Amino acid sequence: MKSYFSELFTGAWSLIIGLKVTIKAMFRPIVTVQYPREKLEITPNYRGHIDLVKDEESGSHKCITCGSCMRECPSDCIVVDGEKREGVKGKALTVFTLDFTKCSLCGACVEVCPTDALDYSNDYELAGFTREEFHFDILKRLEERA
Amino acid sequence: METFYSILPELIRIVICAACGAIIVFGNALVMGYAERKLAGHIMLRPGPMEVGFHGILQLVVDGLKLMGKQLVVPAQADKPLFMIAPLLAFAPVFVPLLVLPFSEKIQGFDLDVGLLLILAFASLNVLAILIGGWGSNNKYSLFGAFRSVAQNVAYEIPMLISLLAIVFMTNTFSLRDIAAAQSPVWFVVLQPLAFLIYIVAMVAETNRAPFDLPEAESELTAGFHTEYSGMSFSLFVLGEYANMFIVCSIATVFFLGGSSGIPLPYFEYSGAIWFLAKVYALMFFLVWIRWTYPRTRFDQLMNFCWKYLIPFSLVNLLITVVMVKLI
Fold it and tell me: Number of A:B CB contacts under 8 A?
């Protein structure tokens, strides 16, 4: 009989405590980010797809068209090509494309690059309607940034 | 012809009452649907609907249009007549109790001597609708939801009735207007706090809302009795649920919170309805608040609580009330 009443009162008291918690929460500011209107700052460590690094000295990229990334890529999604030009040492980069539909974001290309010409981009809003939208022209992206 | 003219005023009255009832049912569903989602959002530290209209105020209109446009799917093995009649049975009876509710001293459809009995009789039709819907769906989740609903509603109707009966003993009437008028100096919530508490608990269980929403416990029963319903037939269940919330909160207002009494306003015979609605919506806010606070009870706990606590306490309360009424 004693436990009958004590259970009732402890139970009722716990219910009141619960109500107190939620009424306080109701007047606290909201914590969710309203995504398309508000965006969180993305960390620079975010590993998106690859991008060519802009060289501050020359204003261009540091790629020497060695093709290591193309050979290293386990998914065969990078295509690099260059041509010999007058007055330019080595080969000049003409094509650098990434098929992001196949890329597994392993980062082997960035690791292997002898001149540190590649880095991860911070793009995360990657949605599209066709698969061709994910065939990135990395060289063009660099020129657009420049 | 003469008889027609003699009943004409009464006919017009009936039509107006029915129209007002429909306005209350749909308006209440819009307001409560929006308020519930907003409050749920803010309790969870998120903003709730924000996209459609200012602060998502048109969200429920859009949802209503969407539900109307949806296909009514009847499962192949379902009992089609029962399946189709259940949502109507859940929705149609909610209009009748609205006719006898005294919104203010002069705003009332009909003042029946058996107003309370009428309300309780029609409110319990909801159980039948849920049972028919659960059975007609031919789905094990629906059927379990319906079973639970019946067990729960039958059990919780007893303490609800007994707690209201204590008030009826004090006022000697079933008429809602007289009961509301009987508490002009002191509201019955002061004289009958235990009955009020019991009624509030039973009211939550009767409307199948959390923490007593076992008939539609989504973690174990998908959606319970309305698993198979889609489009308008689903929304009739929801409209019925919100209307039932309005009705049980109105009964609580009439029986315990003094009906339309409050600080006098001009034309108080009519404007008392403002106080009445304010009290009803305060209770509805409480229902939403507890829904988003408490986890769902286990079924045996639910039954134990009713049979071991609510019914004995309400019986003792009734006994004390009867003795006090006899002595005073």
Answer: 36
